Amino acid sequence: MAFVENLRKIWTLPDLRRRVLFVILLLLITRLFAHIPLPGVQLDTLRDFFSRNQLFGILDMFSGGSISRFSIILMGVGPYITSSIIIQLLTVAIPSLEALQKEGEFGRHKINQYTRWLTIPMAIIQAYGMLAILRSQGIVISLSTFDLITVLIAASAGTIFLMWIGELISENGIGNGISLIITLGIIAGLPIQVRNTFAIIGTGKIGALIFFGVLTLITIGFIVLVTEGERQIPVTYARRIRMGATIPVESHLPLRVNTAGVIPIIFAISFITLPGVAARFFQSARTPFIANSASAIAKFFENNLYYGIIYFILVIAFTYFYTSIVFKPDEVAENLQKQGGFIPGIRPGRETSTYLKSIMSKITLPSSIFLGIIAVLPFLVQAATGITTLVLGGTSILIIVAVIIETMKQFQAQLVMKTYENL
After folding, report:
1. In angstroms, rounded to a whole number, what is the distance separating the alpha carbons of residues 145 and 49?
2. pLDDT tens for residues 123-132?
3. Which helix (H) or strand (E) holds 341?
4. Most confident of 25-34, 170-179, 243-252, 324-333
5. Which of 179-183, 244-248, 327-331 has the lowest mean pLDDT?
6. How many whole angstroms separate alpha carbon 307 and alpha carbon 383?
7. What is this structure's pTM?
8. DSSP secondary structure code for residue 142 in this structure
């Protein structure tokens, strides 16, 4: 009832109604462009290739099916995400960028501008790499130089267009635009899953299908639990009152269990797909040694056991790596000290920083294992049920659940703000 009441409130408030309709319109436009194909490819062969290949299936999932359709938004928002990751890493490595990040709104605007500019060459490089791989598999017909340049420009423009729409949604709508575009692309694949479900019913594997459904619900529950989970560190602030006296004010410092979010999985996907993609590219090399080595690497990554183990380890490693980038205990300890706050029993300054680092390391361990299990969940489900046509994408569920939770929080914040404005 509360959900229905919130929907009614959103619809009765003109500003929120306008924002919601604006988001819906732009998202519909993105799905329209996802169904406009580029020339020069055999679509049936392309879809069959992606359905048989786990590596490219993951890439297609993040593009919302745009790659398997060879649409005008071929690479989706992948190049923009890659650019954002690169800029974040450079911010840690380059002191001038780190200083720029601390300059408030101006610094954030400049870093966003650098990300946009970097997206253009990344889109061209990734689109060319994908075309080269599809050409080596005989999926893309021979393109002239002019046709190749045309396809690269169209695919790059499609990525820039999605980036622009994502920023419009973030600025004038509700929620994070890029996340909503990715989520909608994943949801767009649900009809195929429904079709596969009915196909499984016809084979008589009802027990496996029920197991699959129960496991999906359990997975969603754990994802919500971990996404919302936090460790609350008690903090005491000294507040002065009249006559120079001070009174302690009790508060807490929330440390999220899953601080890194879904970024470690994206990092791991980028690293683990690179050898397989490169191997596919070099399989047609004229040098026998290169061609044989590429074939051996491609065969190695086609083994789900090896692929899953490496994937799991990479996710854990990147969870620790990205958490160390996002959460900086030295800065948190310094800010607490400036605000007159301290953790009971812990001295301000270096000891506070060391304590926070220890706590974050402890809660990152279960978070990293959780993300690792989510990443390899499709392989585990396929091994347990024997169903290969219906895939439980833990990463997909994680993204969808996280985006829905974040969007609903923004809706709640907007409703609270409008309620106070009307008082």
Report:
1. 25
2. 888 888 777 7
3. strand 341-342
4. 25-34
5. 244-248
6. 14
7. 0.76
8. P
Q: How many CB atoms lie within 10 A of CB 394?
A: 25
What is the rounded CA–CA span in Å between residue 214 and residue 367?
Answer: 22
pLDDT in tens, 29-44: 988 888 887 776 766 6
- What's the first-to-final CA gap in the chain, in angstroms? 24
CA pseudo-torsion sign 36, 42, 44, 49: negative
Cβ count near 263 (within 10 Å)? 21
Extended strands (E) in 197-339: 230-240, 246-256
Please name which of 228, 230, 194 lies closest in space to residue 209, comparing C-alpha atoms: 194
For the chain, domain boundaries: 15-188, 201-423
Could you please state the CATH topology (level 3) that the domain comprising 201-423 is classified under.
Preprotein translocase SecY subunit (1.10.3370)
CB 85 within 8 A of CB 114: no
CA–CA dist 312, 26 (Å, integer)? 36
Class of domain 15-188: mainly alpha
Evaluate whether 15-188 and 201-423 have a shared fold: yes
Contact 312, 375 (CB under 8 A): yes
